Amino acid sequence: MEPETISKTGAKPKSQKKDLKHNTMYLLKNIVKISLVCLLCSNYACKNESDNKLKKITDKKLEKTTSRIKKENHDVLETSKKIKKVATDSTVTIENEIQKITIILDSINPKQIIEGRINGSEIRDYLFNINKGQHLKFKLVASSKTIPYFNLMAPGEAYIAFYNGSINNNVYEGVANKSGTFTARVYLMRSAARRNENGKFQLEVFIK
């Protein structure tokens, strides 16, 4: 066997240098691959964490919004119930304050003068049975400083008037367009009613 030849400078042979370089490159490549894998795993973990945080924030906001909507719906429902109750109570109060008086007129006695007094928020309904085509005359004359007024309502109407005395000088003349019970409602203006004033009147009625 020939003895290994060693350079005078003591350097390693070229084959060993080549192997060392190859191993170093291989090691560096593996280190780069491992680093890339670690980076990808880290990014994936960060993304999952971000997604989880975003989901938690979204869920929390959704829960708050849902809770607020439920509360608002509940408040609206309660308000509707209160309004309905107030409206019902107001209607009952008004109906309780209305005095209803039936006046009978016929061909023998087609005319009548009704005298009365109304106080504060009182409302008085005079009811007349009228046939379609009959001629109607209503006139209210006040005999006090506070002036009462009257409205006329057709059969089946409780509040909607086809004639308003407060804007038509308390005088009406016309022909009935249907048969049934017509209502002449006597009242004080709201301002006078709030002051609890009273008004005397004569309601002249002619039906033929």
Short description:
The protein is built from 2 helices and 9 strands. It has helices at residues 14-97, 190-194; strands at 98-103, 111-119, 123-130, 135-142, 149-153, 163-164, 171-175, 180-187, 198-207. The strands form 2 sheets. A 5-stranded mixed sheet has the order 1-3-8-5-6. The chain has a 4-stranded antiparallel sheet with strand order 2-9-4-7, with no helix packed on it.
Please characterize this protein's 3D structure:
The protein has 208 residues and is of the alpha+beta class. The protein folds into two domains: 14-97; 104-207, Jelly Rolls (Sandwich), CATH 2.60.120.380. Helix content is 43%, strand content 29%. The protein has two helices and nine strands. It has helices spanning 14-97, 190-194, and strands spanning 98-103, 111-119, 123-130, 135-142, 149-153, 163-164, 171-175, 180-187, 198-207. The strands form two sheets. The chain has a five-stranded mixed β-sheet with strand order 1-3-8-5-6. Strands 2-9-4-7 form a four-stranded antiparallel β-sheet, with no helix packed on it. The longest helix has 84 residues, at 14-97. The radius of gyration is 49 Å and the shape is rod-shaped. The protein starts with 13 loop residues before the first helix and ends with a strand.
Mean pLDDT: 81
Query: Treating each run of at least 4 consecutive H or I residues as one helix, how many helices?
Result: 2
Question: Based on DSSP secondary structure assignment, what is the total number of beta strands?
Answer: 9
Gyration radius (Cα, Å) is 49 Å
Distance from first to last alpha carbon = 156 Å
Please write the CATH class name of the largest domain. Answer: Mainly Beta
Q: Which oligomeric form is depicted?
A: single chain
The class by helix and strand makeup works out as alpha+beta
Helix content: 40-55%
